[in-house]
Amino acid sequence: MTKLPFLLLFEFSAISLILGLNTEGSGSTYHNSYNEVEQEQETYYTPELDYKHPRWCHLLKLSNGEMTCTSPRGGNHRSSLGTRCSLSCDRGYKLIGRSSVQCMSNRRWSGSAYCRRVRCHVLPLVHQGTYTCTSGFVVDSRCDYTCFQGYQIEGDRYRICQEGGRWSGIEPTCADHDPPKLKCPVSKVKVAEPGKLTLSVSWDRPVATDTADRSLRVLRNGPESGSEFGEGEHVIRYKVYDQARNTATCKFVVRVEVKRCPALKEPLHGYLTCSSDGNNYGAVCEYHCDAGYERTGTATRVCLFNRNWSDQAAECVLMQIQTDIRSAGALLDQFYEKRRLLIVSAPSVSEQYYKLQNIMLQKASCGLDLRHVTVIELLGSPPREVGRIKEQQLDAEVVEGLRQALQISRSYFSMVLVDELGVDRERFINPTTSDELYNYIEEYLLTEEERERLELNRDLCD
């Protein structure tokens, strides 16, 4: 009975000596740390189950970290059944896995872990600058920024990789605050030769320089060197940008003088077309008349060297309509591509609709004329039927031809609007105001040029 405790103590001491374990008091703590990164490899010691001996888990290893273990059998039994180990990593490393493990009855630890080196993300390159780092992109590494010649740093001059894997501060920039330099030619005053309208002017293109950028693009606003310049002042501007959007500008003036005649006035119910710039020496101006008007006088005038116009101004008078003809076709041919027609038909001059419409047409005479519209009246029935254009009477055959060609009835009031090509465009069976007529004509019958001229002369009828 006295030999059994001695044998157990001897056996335990022998095992401790073989495994290289130190014995300490029960409940003591064991610390172990390593400096290199290693991937954990598990090995298992599986002796036969014998309750006379403690159960062992494999020996824990944690590279670049530290383990603090507590065993119920004492510090020498740091992998015995029930041993608990708290795991932590050195500065610059992050624990991946369980922070605390225990040796289980199945001879395995309750979890695993390893220390992974903490790295900050690779810093992006700085435009027009660079950086150098003390230890790459690991914790506590410092990266210092510098800018290229001609640029100044804005923001943090250095950044440090922090323990959480983030860089301190914010990314700086390299800014160019110095604008480029640009010089324009001197202004020029030139006189055009007699009989010429423009003058070719040339100059040396400005050259830009900058402290940061080697090549700069100079932009021009205005005619280029060697262009033909007309009369007056012409401002040529140059602008240059560097990559930082700093700008430099300069400008100069090219002035060309041309001998001129007084500006001609357009004829009433007509317009002018002139060569060159309109009233310079040698310019030729031709008089044109609106549809339904005829020109009287000299068709063209020339600006002379003495700054006066040749001949006298032409005029535009209302076209003479030939009414002593025998067919509707001959009448309509006179208006083809010149005037529009508004043909008014009524059973008699006393018809109420006609009387009301006639009052409105008399007030609209000027407005219809501006819109190139001639009014033809077809009134009554044979043998007392009357056809007229203002005070000019139409032959009975012409009246009948118009009614047949345009299918105009004598039995009721109506109006037919015919365009300058002789096409029936619109019919009205009730009295229509002048504004309604104007709106329809302007929207559907007038050309764009006629609308523009109408706007210029609209107040002539007021």
Automatic annotation (TrEMBL):
- Provide the GO MF annotations for this entry: signaling receptor binding
GO CC, one annotated term: synapse
Disulfide pairings: C147-C174, C289-C316
Query: Which stretches make up the Sushi domain?
Result: 67-117, 118-176, 259-318
Residues spanning the signal sequence: 1-20
List each copy of the HYR domain by range: 175-258
Record-linked InterPro entries: DUF4174, HYR_dom, SRPX-like, Sushi/SCR/CCP_sf, Sushi_SCR_CCP_dom
Query: Which Pfam family, any one of them, does this sequence belong to?
Result: DUF4174
**Keyword Repeat set for record:** yes
Identify the domain of life: Eukaryota
Cellular compartments annotated: Cell surface; Cytoplasm; Secreted; Synapse
Swiss-Prot/TrEMBL GO biological process terms: angiogenesis; cell-cell adhesion; positive regulation of cell migration involved in sprouting angiogenesis; positive regulation of synapse assembly
Q: What is this protein called?
A: Sushi repeat-containing protein SRPX2
